[in-house]
Amino acid sequence: MSEETKKTKIGYYPGCAITKCSTSEEYGTSVLGVSRVIGPELVEIDDWNCCGASSGHATNHKLSTALSVRNISLAEKDGYDEVLAPCPMCSQRLIVSQDDVEKDEKLREEVEDAIEMPISNNVKVSNYLEIVKNYSMDEIAEKQKKKPEGLKVASYYGCLLVRPPKILKFDDPEDPKTMDEIVTAIGAEAVDWEFKTSCCGGGFTLSRTDVVVKLTNDILEGAADAGANAIAVACPMCHANLDMKQNNIEKETGRRFNIPIVYISELIGLALGLNPKDLGMDKHFIDTGSVINAFSNIEK
Amino acid sequence: MKIKITTKELTSDFAKEVKERSGIDVKKCYQCGKCTAGCPVAYEMDYMPNQIIRFVQIGARKQALTSRTIWLCASCITCTTRCPKEVKIAELMDVLREMALEEGVANPMEKDITTFHEAFLNSVKKHGRISECGMIMEYKRKRPKAALKSALQDLSDGSHLMLKGKLSLAPHSIKGKDSIKRIFEKLG
Amino acid sequence: MSKKIGVFVCHCGTNISATVDVEKVAEEAKKNNPGVSYTTTYKYMCSDPGQKLLRDKIKEEGLDGVVVAACSPKMHEHTFRNASKKAGMNPYHVEISNLREQCSWVHPDKPTGTEKSVDLVRMMTEKTRKDKSLNPIKVPVTKRALVIGGGIAGIQAALDIADAGHEVIMVEREASIGGHMAQLSETFPTLDCSQCIMTPKMVELAQNENITLYTWSEIEAVDGYLGNFDVKIRKKARSVDLDLCTGCSSCWQVCPSKKIKSEFDMGLGKRTAIYIPFPQAIPSKPVLDREHCLLFKDARKKNIPPNDSKVCRKCLDICPIAPVKAIDYTQEDEIITEKIGAIVVATGYKELDDISMYGEYGGGKYKDVITGLQFERLASASGPSEGEIQRPSDGKVPEIIVFIQCVGSRDPAKGCSYCSKTCCMYTAKHTMLYKHKVHHGHAYVFYIDIRCPGKGYEEFSLRAIEEEGATYLRGRVSRVYKKGDKLVVLGADTLTGSVVEIEADMVVLASAMKAQDDAEKFAQKLSIQYDKDKFFSEIHPKLKPVESSSAGIFLAGTCQGPKDIPETVAQAGAAASKVLALLSADELEREPVVAKVDRLPAPIFSTCIGCFYCQRVCPYGAIESEDIKARDGSTIKTVARVNEGLCQGCGLCAATCRSKSVELAGFNDEQVYAEINSVEFN
Amino acid sequence: MSKAEAKPENQFEPKIIAFLCNWCTYAGADLAGTGRKEYQANVRIIKLPCTGGIDPLFLIKAFERGADGILVSGCHPGDCHYNSGNYHARRRWNVFRPLLEFCGINPDRIQFSWISAAEGGKWVETINGIVDAVRELGPFESYQKLNTIGPETSGGAADASSETG
User: Fold this and answer.
1) Do A194 and C360 touch (CB under 8 A)?
2) I want to staple A55 with a disulfide (CB 3.0 to 4.6 A). Which of B8, B120, C40, D90 is the partner?
3) Global pTM?
4) Cβ–Cβ of A172/C483 closer than 8 Å?
């Protein structure tokens, strides 16, 4: 028993994008809100720093590795053996960096020197879907208060949850199923569609808006064609691009999708009967009312 | 385009240099083009991903490092995932970007992107985390044209974000700022 | 007693001499070694003049031991032993130092290579010193061949052997012979109908009096050795008595289970539970599929003998044979044993059909993404659509069809690293078959390289492009996804440097030729070697292409590696000729590398203490017990004895023997210790 | 360490004796040669029909003569040309290893591996691996010392030459 409880305390690495007062704070808010109800207990890693994100690895491999690995060493110091990084950019950077220093002795030495801490690599970094699947599926079933009616969800994984598969080792890189399983578990319909792992343009939100508009248009079209009335995501960048660019798409193509983009944690929260506002669902560009209203109390 | 090969032009083995630096062996590539076929940004690139690999294979250093392609790569890693020869193509783009910056030959047409990266990392360097406002402001200051281009959109996006309390004005600084600075000094 | 040993160091052109100072090696061999009475070097020891040099020097110098320092003993040990024999020396006093494969080719630094070579030669010199004269063992030959597999390779080999007058046993695990070739619609580069050229051969085989055919049968075990194999064959329960059945077809016409996926049609067509795989099957008699048969299903569910189930006995009821019906639900597997002299392995290949590993192509998910062999069935007049090219999903005729080459092949990340060799040609053929049937249709082929180095092959593939109008795009496909009832194919054309998106109706994957799923297990059953891809290995890639690593077992067709029909037939003929050479002798000579238990004069008789540990470890049951008797007939002691006919020379007994009474000829303790002792240590 | 990098001066070059079966590993070593795969030259091969035919005393003898390391390599489990010889070899090795430890010989000086006739690459890796590992362990001296005290047991011309070495 004691071992089990020890195991379910997990280091929490929010990353910059989903902390309070950031662009995607509702993801962090809902992840934490949900975990308070169904576990596992999440404790923020003390003094964590930015992983460097795409700008880091795109321009300076060593720097990017050091920035990522510092957080893992901090988690190790705090005594965690598992860390949740809900943002896939973060979780991917952390895991890949772990792998890089594992395979490259020289790099490891340089990084240890830079972060002024030893690297032991005993910490498992998990994404949010993994955490839910491994710890909370039974709890969701047990504590579910509301069920959606007529909610057809396209699960959108994006790039960083599944790629590179040889290093991340999470789900099928061409046709992942974990999020669909969660969607199904809370009683929504998981639609089979073709763009689960297509790229949304990621970090080009500001610098190459045109690229993002084209790619998100393809994804939204795919979801709409498959009959989805909501898209579930587990990535702040995917969310930002899909949620914010629907206006631009309308301007360019004349097509208004108006598909609410919701975090998977928000969907779980709604199923648990949490207040939509506490989940941050009022902070979206595309109104989430249709999703919220799809949920109603389960008759006991 | 003409690629000239003389003893003067090609004094170093570019492919070997890339391999020594990153462990990526471009010689394994047999140019099947699967990377290009699956690249979501290929339509915007000046050279296809497989052509960039080809440049490295045949030692056309300049063409590879000055291409716009390396900056347009969105790092979605679809290419690496599907490559039948397990060449890490997305990771190769990282290496080439790094080299292009070091040698100061990054393509000026994609200055928007390089400036963004710069602004992003500067923010991390200063605070340990991202200060979104500071970063966006630095970016806009350095790329006014890009700012103008998306001014309309900014009005709708940025103000909306602030309205909803999602864009903070105060930087998020961490206690260990100095240790981050030292990381940048050593490796930056 | 001391031997006069000659050391012959080969340059092998420059293969050895470039990185080994051969003169120095020869010189060192003599130094401090009074036993070595002659040394020389020569450009090519294996050449005729090289062998003559060896013969001459044996005679002139009176040598009674020879070390040839050259290539691997696997290459020319036999050559040099033969040459020595011709010079009147017992051939087992010849040893080979492997200076090429294990030295000059792997150590480019000359001083290093030379130093190692000196060591290697000294080791073999010392071994030679302890070599004993041995004589080949003569064994009788069973004049009957076994052919395993009834595809085109097996059929060709069996016919060739039988036509030469020898008995052949053919074992085929499916219900009919014919193999993959029977499934093909037309064949390249002539576009002649596969079944039209195949079925006459099948009939010929069935009618050949020298051939005994076991279908629906598998090899259970192979024991024995060259010339004298004991083969156990499992005749799987067919539920049909082949002697009684006339193949009248009544039973499969009444069978109510009609929706079982036909293996022969690659899952595109349906069959009944009692069935013949295809109309031209040989034998043209059915097999009952017990897994799907209602009666057997019911019996399994109720846990009763099948004969007690009354659910469905339609096939039995309608069988017109009297008084005893040809259908028998109680039939059981039967094991038969055959004595065999030589074996041809022709077990064929398996198409990569688990295309679900190609999730990016929608493999296994979309019905209209099919494999090459499935397309063959679609195009075949005897196929599920009677030769009409139709989409499996809705029967629509595809107007745009995309062929993707190298699926599984040349793909070390997911499939196999090798090239499957036939796909370029069969894809070109597929485009033609398609264009011949769908005149208004468009065929696109994504390729990496077009490889067609056969007679008429280049012309054939160009015909597909130039005359038949197939569009070839140089690049691979990264993704296939569904959009409405179309398949969007996302590929590249690297020649124009562009991404190509095609809205297709159907996608055909030119999937790889792979080794059979159970190839590894099967190889172990026969004690033959296989490569990293589980294809069976020939012992020499150039000079012994049909010989397996076990004497008397030969390879034919795609079980050895991907190949097309002409090559398969040629190889089958080659294997048959090797079998015929073997069967033409009454006696065979075998390497005398066998174990022996010592015999000494009275009163010891043998140091063997009769513990028989050797008997327990011997894999061949070659250890017998012998009573050493006094004149009055009473037993003095019981000791072990090796049956030379059964012994294969592994040496397990020698290593196990506690009293050191067993020795392995050619590798005895003295010889091994001599080798160890001769290494120069620091 | 493995390839033609410049060797440090006076680097200790261990001598390794490899006992190989004829069918798999010896052929694998040949394949490495056919593929011109370079590796360190510290190994001397003794070929036997099967690893099952290796008497443990051969190994003891090799150490006694001054070998710094030993490799025993045969067919993969299930692939033995003689059906079960390699299993016997493996069982013998399981008993032999603790015996070595008991005698005070570092068992890292002996490696046991499966290398098939198709695994030229694995042969090269194995050889470079054991040579590097034994180089790290340093020369094997205990038995040589013993050997100089006790009566000379081994005969043959090799002894004469070993004095020069």
Assistant:
1) no
2) B120
3) 0.82
4) no
